[in-house]
Amino acid sequence: MKQSNATQQTVVERTVAQRVSAASNVHAAYIGLDVHKASISVAIAEARRQAPEFRGEIPNEPAAIDKLVRQLSQRFDGQPLLFSYEAGPCGYGAYHQIQASGHDCEVVAPTLIPQRAGDRIKTDRRDAKMLARLSRSGELTPVWVPTPEQEAVRDLTRAREDMKAAELRARQRLNAFLLRHSKIYPGKSKWIPAHFRWLETVRFDTPVQQVVLQEYVDNVKDAQRRVAGLEKQMRAVLPNWSLSPVVGSSSSSRRGPPSSAWARPRRWRMPLE
Fold first, then answer.
1. Which residues contact 208 (CB under 8 A, 6 or more apart)?
2. Strand ranges inside the chain, DSSP E
3. Which CATH architecture has domain 5-136?
4. pTM of full prediction above 0.90
5. SS3 of 81, please?
6. Which tens digit of pLDDT belongs to each residue from 52-100?
7. Gap between the Cα atoms of 150 and 241, Å rounded
8. What is the DSSP letter of 52?
9. Most buried residue, 200, 208, 222, 239, by CB count within 10 Å?
């Protein structure tokens, strides 16, 4: 049997009220943070139904965040607080600092934040108050936050992917240079010792072009060394990494590059879900 619109609305309102009531029993206040590179806008929604208040703006610095946490902790007599901010380029430093202070913090998915119809004007003040209000009503969706160890390994895999892309670009530039001058490699496989030996035999009519060839070749070899060095570090980290079971057996092989699963946060979250 279908519910009437009035009945459905009543159920929704009751559900929201239950979430607010349950949340109020856990945290004394809900702090919305609109985080930017140089500043953080702060808004506070107390456990009651009153409108969130905008507290102001602080520098995005550890000392300023620590001062904010201490002041709010004193204001609410040391009761638990919940801080919320959107996932973005500023990372998880604020999250780890707030968690270490003894309060709760969540990093939320920006694409899953409920939006009011017609609410298209975005300011730091509005965003902070919106985060505080939605956090109080339990309408925010947190994302998985890696530990400092997991973040360090992810940075390592990202660096490897960046260096791999640089290697690909270096190869493309060398290939294009040789093709422009009709220098065609007769073998089947490139970037193996036989190919590099052939490159050593390539000669140009002018010394300047010979210098250019050597620069392109050296660039490819340098990129290969960087990729190999990062892959060596990845294999060294793997045995003691907390999420090593997520990585396939191909990553632990001494031959071939580590699995691309290293760079997929979704694969990392699997043992945590």
1. none
2. 29-35, 39-46, 53-59, 81-86, 104-108
3. 2-Layer Sandwich (3.30)
4. no
5. strand
6. 999 999 999 999 999 999 999 999 999 999 999 999 999 999 999 999 9
7. 8
8. P
9. 222
